[in-house]
Write a structure and sequence with these properties.
The protein has five helices and six strands; from the N terminus they run αααββββαββα. The chain is of the alpha+beta class and 194 residues long. The longest helix is centred in the C-terminal third of the chain and has 29 residues. The two termini are 24 Å apart.
Length: 194
């Protein structure tokens, strides 16, 4: 069977190009990622290595700062401006040292094209051997009292049994390469949407 493009009901090439253009321009404003309340609120000093990220990017910094191991990835996802992180976990082992909670970032996103580009970027990083396991974007929801749909950036552990340390190294590598990988995939998809 051949999968044909939709003739009616699709969002259209022009809208896809516009959404991808917005993504490719993310960060062009020069505004700090963390916002004006950050003590390092200047484009020259703003980076995923800033020690203030766990507090500044949390909606409840006193009681629930971001965990330091996931904070750089949350920062880089937010830096792309198309994704709005709302929850994260750096991953944890249980009392026996076995993987208990996987590292992940939950986020909001309005554009299916942006989700596709993010998923393609994760795939490209894995194919380039930068990641120990494949990572994916999944559909989820945050709470029963929240009607908004959320998505999760997380490792795909179908048949894999990596260590927490390996997954946390993946988090660092994704944070390091996310922007360039997303931009490369956005440019590719933009060429297809002509």
């Amino acid at each position: 069977m051949r999968i044909e493009g939709r003739k009616n009901g699709g969002i259209g090439a022009a809208q896809i190009r516009e959404e991808l253009g917005d993504l490719l321009r993310s960060g062009a404003s020069g505004k700090p990622v963390c916002g004006p309340n950050c003590p390092h609120a200047s484009p020259e000093r703003c980076s995923r290595h800033c020690p203030d990220i766990p507090r500044i990017l949390s909606s409840d910094p006193k009681n629930h700062p971001l965990e330091s191991g996931i904070a750089p990835l949350v920062y880089e996802l937010k830096r792309l401006e198309a994704f709005h992180p709302c929850w994260s976990c750096e991953g944890h082992n249980d009392a026996d040292g076995k993987l208990w909670k996987i590292p992940r970032v939950w986020f909001y996103c309005k554009s299916v094209a942006h989700l596709r580009v993010l998923a393609d970027a994760l795939k490209a990083l894995h194919l380039a051997k930068k990641l120990s396991v494949p990572w994916r974007v999944t559909l989820t929801f945050s709470d029963d009292d929240n009607a908004d749909t959320t998505f999760s950036l997380e490792p795909n552990l179908n048949h894999e049994h990596p260590s927490l340390a390996a997954l946390q190294r993946d988090v660092d590598r994704i944070a390091e390469h996310l922007r360039e990988a997303v931009f490369a995939e956005a440019r590719k998809l933009s060429r297809l949407a002509r």
